[in-house]
Amino acid sequence: MNKLFFTVAFVSLLALSIGTIHAQSEQQIRSDLQKKLGSNAKIKSVSPSPIAGVYEVLVGNEVFYTDTNSKYLIQGDIIEIATGKNLTEQKQADLNRIKWSELNPANALKAVRGNGSRQLAVFSDPNCGYCKRLDKSLQQLDNVTIYTYLIPILSPDSAQKSKQIWCSADPQKTYIDWMINGIAPSGKSDCTTPLDKNMAFAKTYGITGTPTIFFTDGSRFPGAAQITDIEKKLSSLKQ
């Protein structure tokens, strides 16, 4: 019994020691890499990758890899051959995910078609050509609620148009009239708007381009995604 107890205790101590060594190693890699990359690169974490001797490095919301000596910074995908899974892509998707509950519908334009059961959110700039293309495509969706968050990031005129859209008598109609029909917004632009809140949200979650789409599971589609891909994603979610 004493021998068994000693063996179990030794194995437990060994496992704890190995874990401590790994933690120290990861911390050292992070420290060394941070010095080499400079203060502009904000390293969030360093952790073992599925490949022995290779570590996953999170810089902001980007995934990189490095060796145990921090000599190389590797940019690329790790694909598990047995399953065909792109592990880097999965990690990147998780990093870009948000909590749907953190979106405030009061700060968005709202369009409801059909029963409105399926939901998505779009961050849009009124001077964004790809946003206009996306808005035209979204007209094909039924039984959907679309929340549009205006973030004027392209030009000073984007801010002016966003304010005019939000301050109009029917902001959603004014938005669609401009984005799809080319009818420029006019009228006052001095009402209280949520634009600053939307910009702050975009900055917090790394939304640097428009359009950016979010779904109720928190996943995002950057750019003017194909309507078939959007429909497929919506169909996969339990609304």
From TrEMBL:
It holds the Pfam family DsbC_N. It is found in: Periplasm. Residues 1-23 form the signal peptide. Residues 22-89 form the Disulphide bond isomerase DsbC/G N-terminal domain. Keywords: Disulfide bond, Periplasm, Redox-active center, Signal. PANTHER family: THIOL:DISULFIDE INTERCHANGE PROTEIN DSBC, THIOL:DISULFIDE INTERCHANGE PROTEIN DSBC-RELATED. Belongs to the thioredoxin family. DsbC subfamily. This is Thiol:disulfide interchange protein. It comes from Polynucleobacter arcticus.
